[in-house]
Amino acid sequence: MSISDRDLARLFSAKRVALIGASANPVKWGSIILSNIRLGHFNGQVFPVNPREKEIQGYKVYPDVASLPDGVDLAVIAVPASVVMETIRECGYKGIPFAIVISAGFREAGNPDKENALVEAARASNVKIVGPNTMGIFSGGTGLHALMPPVRPPVGGFAFLSQSGNIGTQTLALGGINQVGFRYYVSSGNEADLAIHDYLDFFASDPEVKVVGAYIEGVTDGRAFYEAAKRVTGKKPLVIYKSGESMEGARAAGSHCGAMASSPRIFQGALDQAGIVRAYGTEHIVDFARAFLYLPLPKGLRVGIVSWGGGWGVVTTDLCRKAGLQVPRLDQETLEKLDKVLPEYWSRGNPVDLVGSLDLNAHMKALEAVALSPNVDAVLTLGTIGGATLIKNSSGSVFGRALIAAAEAADAAFRERISDLIEKSRKPIIGVSMKNEDLQDGSSSGQRLVVYSSPERGVRAIAAMAKYQSFCKARGLNAWLGNEPAA
Question: pLDDT at residue 487 above 50?
């Protein structure tokens, strides 16, 4: 069944939501989901349904679906699997066009006939289903947190689909930590009715979505998935993490969400042809989304490396080469600029070793020289960002307050100057911090700054951006060839 973009726009912009199976018991999903909707400040109306309650969490409760007011856009169904089919029929009688079926116990539990019968009943009733066996959806436009897990993702330009509820929860949480805002999230579950290609088509059509991501265990309609993916990548980056490729992983996927795993070789070929950026770990999804959201694309594969010390420069050079990136020689004009700000014994090459200098102004001048070099398409700056935080958090009171304050001021100024340099050079500049954790990107203050906790993550992000840029260039996709930031 083909689902139009307009149909799914109504799903994700639902303003009148019924929760069927609402509960006053705080440990039941019917209570947790209602709490998430309430605490998420949904800007629509909520109608809990429970035959034994009059009021739950301050909401008037309706005894059954038939007693609901007209014009409900979406039903969230959290009742036992044995009564889901009848509940769907009741939604159809009431004219409710969409249902999120939280309930499990269908194909993933070895009951494909029950799931097939559910889909037949839904289509006969003109109800489109998310799931079953789903953790729900999030819509940033309406503030709808129709979710089982208690997460509050920030609002932004990332749309994410996950065939796993717990990986979806992890991604929402990581996004919150790393200032990756979500336009939409959907836990697609078994995809008995609405499938990944339907959601991808909708994400492609929404101009508020700047980057799309997905965690996939399998697809049931490879051609539809491929065509939908191409429609996404023709407009915006698509990052996919595909699991279930080993024999054991495929079995686990089948028992988890009933997914049909596809050949790894065929799937990789489809990803390459469609211009999809592949992630190989759950954290990579958010890492790549951050880079695409806040940075311009590199025009090529040439990376300039500026390092506070020599070791990270050597490591990062190796990482770049392994990732298919280039670490070019610097042009003579850039070398002369660097000679003016660095000690005479500096390495005079790429990577640029700052030889442990504490002069952040010299750091910035060196970084600017490298970023503006015609031989460089992207820059990694290693160690400078976060130095003030490292000093502040050191054990013991070995540093005076004046030094800490000065270091914090210098660090803030360095971040601002990097953000300005990104705009000036139209090149991505990625930072790697001295701390073994990510630092805030500064995106909330309007700065285009992405900082990772390791060179490995920075190199992977640049390689992902370069891969998508190459795809766009080969196909003349002008929306991204201008090297404009995605947000």
Answer: no
Structural domain span for residue 304:
297-481
**pLDDT, position 442:** 47
* pTM score, whole prediction: 0.90
In a domain, 2, yes or no: yes
Is residue 342 situated within a structural domain?
yes
**What's the pLDDT at 161?**
98
201-206: Cβ within 8 A, 24+ apart: 201/3, 201/5, 201/8, 201/228, 201/231, 202/5, 202/8, 202/9, 202/12, 203/159, 203/161, 203/232, 204/228, 204/231, 204/232, 204/234, 204/235, 204/236, 205/5, 206/9, 206/159
Going 472 to 476 to 480 to 483, the CA torsion angle's sign is: positive
**pLDDT greater than 80 at residue 165:** yes
Verify that 286 and 307 share a domain, yes or no: no
- Kindly state whether residues 289 and 304 are assigned to the same domain: no
Q: Mean of the pLDDT values across residues 229-253?
A: 78
Give dist(CA 134, CA 304) in Å, integer.
Answer: 44
CATH number, domain of 50, equals 3.40.50.720
- HSE at residue 12, side-chain half, CA atoms within 13 A, is 27
Q: How far apart are CA 441 and CA 409, in angstroms?
A: 16
Distance of CA 338 to the CA centre of its chain: 37
Distances (CA, A) of 461 to 33, 143, 286, 289, 298: 35, 30, 10, 9, 11
Q: How far, rounded to the nearest angstrom, does the alpha carbon of residue 184 sit from its chain's CA centroid?
A: 10
Paired strand residues for 215: 162, 241
| In the predicted structure, residue 309 carries a pLDDT above the cut 80 | yes
* pLDDT on residue 435: 63
